[in-house]
Amino acid sequence: MIEGYKRYNDPRDTSGCGLVGFINRDGKRVDGSNIIKSLCLMKDRGNGLGAGFAAYGIYPDMADYYAIHVMMDKPEVKPHVEHVLYKFFNVHREEEIPTRQNPNIKNPPVFWRYFVEPKNECLLQGEEQDGLVVRAVMSVNNNVSGAYVISSGKNMGAFKGVGEPADIADFFNIEDYKAYIWMGHTRFPTNTPGWWGGAHPFTILDWAIVHNGEITSYGTNRAFLEMYGYKCTLLTDTEVVAYALDYLLRQQKMPLRAAFYALASPFWKDIDMESAEDREFAEALKAIRIQYGPLLLNGPFAILFGWRNGLVGFNDRIKLRPLFAGEKDETLYMASEEATIREICAKPDRLWMPRAGEPVIGMLKEGA
Amino acid sequence: MTLMKVIKLEENAVDIDAASVHYRDLNEEINRVVNEGAKHIIIRNVNGQRFIGAGLQGDDIRIDIHGVAGNDLAVFMDGPTIEVFDNAQDGVGNTMNAGKVYIHGHAGDVCGYGMRGGSLFVLGDVGYRVGIHMKAYMGKTPVLVVGGTAGHFLGEYMAGGIIVLLGIEKRAGQRIAGDYLGTGMHGGTIFVRGEVDNRRVGKEVGIEKLDENDNLVLKRELSEFSRVFHLSYDEVMSEPFVKLFPKTHRPYGPMYNSRWSWQRGG
């Protein structure tokens, strides 16, 4: 739980968010230089009040342990965080996340990472390790004043804060990490504070979200998710998307496409039209919409969603925010602008504007 | 800041290398060379720079863009001709007043928004909400021709002007236009090559066959479109067109009338 966001609540110029992500389907890892270069091209879409990165494949030597990235208002918070972590986990290694002095990064929090394995004796009846990790994360976020877990998956991590993309990248030494999936975001906060915890990505386990838009259904979504133990503590609408996907994909074990039909369900009139062509499909859409109605995301959005096996881009049902896709050999790129992709991939094999409500899915190959 | 390479060519022509140049610097440079009398500006290595040609005046000015033109290309433009030999992003021709924009690739969302004069030709596809609120204004008639397909809301709240949607080379199973075609339309005309799905057309829109005058308009615009993009005019005209028109010029009139009468205490 963070109390320090008020420190960063200064007004800036207006613009719109920018997002970019890419996956190498062969699992080939590349350093952070391209994600930085592409994100920096969209500097003018953000306003310096939030930038961040998610990267998959960055801790190959620690791949068996959950990597818990923790953001703390001040060093004094650390024992309180560890009080929770050491209760749930055997901590294999802990260290400060390396950061650099950057003249434009003012008053940053402290960042630590813990490589952990859940204690068997802490598992609830029938609970899997992932479930315990989610409980531990919620416990820190909700009970430890001044601390927030910003990522908790294996072999991945989130790095985010208040600043321009180039400065946040420099602060976290992003170019030194090597990943097969990279996601980046530059923020223009609209109706929630521009503070360190509010920067994107938002994550739980290895699910990570970057988002451009507004989730106007936040209240409804949050109320539903709270019934399943998810605590929204980050003061930002995007947070519910990460938890909604964790609930649908991990807890409900829904197929990927079905989960996206729950979040961006077709309009009733389109389901009716579909009914004439493919009755069975239309019935499935109807069932999903009724069952998971409280998770329907309303409002304008373009979202990138990453996890250890893939990267997905999807829009609201009438495409109220931009999303662009490109492909070159085994790399799939998605971004708010075409130029962002062309900046790091001059001659893609294919370039396209994804249709509203149709997710673009890039999956890691089996065994990669 | 990256230093911009600007080379003066013969006869009022200028070559600008926009690689890694910020949009503000690029647009200031364009304004500067135009003020010094440049008539033909070639810009290379463009990648996402916004607002190129913003508010620019002068019917005799020509800008060639190599690379991806950024958002709001030709916004408020008033006269010049811009040719993009690649793709363009969102918002091309936003509130454009006069001039021509030719895009050899595709263009993104909200192109031709509130356009009130001049022409915007796109060889490839366009995104969502294209041609929203186009209007004819003081004898001007904006023209938007799309060679490929369009997303939802093409011509939404259209108040005037002409949109032509050709759907050349659309993939099998791909619809030529998205949903809500012409929703809220109260002026202007949309011509679609081939068929439209009635269920996807706004309820304010009528569909009918073309008359003599419509054919003349199409001939004029598509001859130019074919010439600009080196297409065969006969091939472009090889399929029949349908015409979409507003059934009424005030589709929401009754809604406001009743509110006003209520406010008057009626």
What this model shows, in words?
The complex is a heterodimer of chains A (368) and B (266). Chain A is of the alpha+beta class and 368 residues long. Residues 5-14 of chain A have low confidence and may be disordered. Chain A is 28% helix and 27% strand. With 266 residues, chain B is an alpha/beta fold. Chain B has 4 helices and 12 strands; from the N terminus they run ββαβββββββββααβα. Chain B has helices spanning 23-35, 212-229, 233-236, 253-263, and strands spanning 5-9, 13-17, 40-47, 62-68, 78-84, 98-103, 119-122, 143-146, 159-165, 187-193, 205-208, 241-246. In chain B, strands 1-2-3-4-5-6-7-8-9-10-12-11 form a 12-stranded mixed β-sheet, with helices on one face. In chain B, a hairpin with a 3-residue loop joins strand 1 and strand 2. Chain B is globular, with a radius of gyration of 20 Å. The A-B interface holds A 41-42, 44, 270, 273, 318-319, 322, 324, 337-340, 342-343, 351, 353, 355-356 and B 23, 47-48, 50, 67-68, 70-71, 87, 89-90, 106, 108-109, 125, 127-128, 151-153, 178-179, 199.
